[in-house]
Amino acid sequence: MGIRKKLWNWCPRPKKLVSTYFARLAIPFYVSILIGCLLLTICAAVAFVPSILFKHVDESGWVPKEIERISFPGYDIVVREMRYNPFEKGYISIRIEAYVASEENLTAYVNSRTNSLNALLDAIAPNALIEIAVITFKNPLKAEELTSLCETSLVKLGEYAVIVTDEKTNMNDFVILWFPRPEDPNFAKDLTLIKESHRLEGIIAVECCIKAETAKTLKSDPRILLIDPIEDPTILEIKKKYEAAGLDVQVERSFSQEMWRQYAQLKLGVKWVSNADLESPDH
Questions:
Q1: Which residues are CB-neighbours of 26 under 8 A, at least 6 positions away?
Q2: Is residue 35 part of a domain?
């Protein structure tokens, strides 16, 4: 018996194998847990990564970033760095922000910008061409008057703003146009067809090229409120500074639309109408 007991202790009874039945049942459960964890991880990434990325974008200057602002009576000259992603070189944007929502601000703006025009005219030759200028009229011009002005004084016309009256509501609207052109034979007639059920009241402002000597003459025209050059000596100096630093510089032309809108609201009580509304007969 002693030998048998020793052999029994030296060679113990084999352990009972664990059944694989329950393991097979548990596999789908574990897989579901893994898939759920993976989905939660993806959702967390979608929720938090964009916010982290946009925070990085804001701090790194990949979006427009104001780097300089110079204030004058009635307006500011604003300088921004324009870069939308890290792969772009970017450029410097210079634009005028006009504040003409009151009579006091309008007077300040007109006086300031007239001084800028005079400084520009003193710095260039009489036959020099002012590439882009914005002319605002005291009262809306008729189509024939604008045609005559273009024939005698303006080298080239860009955008222009017109006032129309909604015949259903008798309210004035303000519309910025590119076509028709004053040189077209049917210019006056085509202007009346820009929007159904609307009557043309006149042209309130134009963007154009003009010679320096012509600008000097038109300053005293009683129909004209202001001749406003896009690039005045101050803006040209700012442009030169950033170009000397090896940066591309763009002077924005879009300020005129905002200035015209404010002016039309102040002087004529009109509301803003976008170019997209021109295709629809009604508001």
A1: none
A2: no
d(CA 85, CA 262): 33
In a domain, 88, yes or no: yes
**Residue 159 maps to a domain:** yes
Q: Are 106 and 113 in contact (CB under 8 A)?
A: no
Evaluate whether 228 touches 135 at the Cβ level (below 8 Å): yes
Mean pLDDT of 205-224: 97
Inform me whether the pLDDT recorded for 156 exceeds 60. yes
- State how far the Cα of 198 lies from the Cα of 204, in Å rounded to an integer: 16
The length of the chain in residues reads: 283
Q: Using CB atoms within 10 A of its CB, is residue 79 exposed (0-12), middle (13-18) or buried (19+)?
A: buried
Tokens matching residue 228: 């406003």
Tokens of 250: 């763009």
Total number of domains in the chain: 1
9 within a domain of the structure (yes/no): no
What's the rounded mean pLDDT across residues 253-257?
Answer: 88
- The pLDDT of 236-260, averaged and rounded, is 94
Q: Give pLDDT, residue 61.
A: 46
- The predicted structure's pLDDT at residue 51: 45
Give the pair of three-digit tokens for residue 204.
Answer: 């309130």
Average pLDDT, the chain: 83
Which domain range does residue 254 map to? 65-279
Please report where in the chains the tokens 């882009």 appear, as a residue: 132
Q: Which of 97, 92, 93 is nearest to 71 (CA)?
A: 97
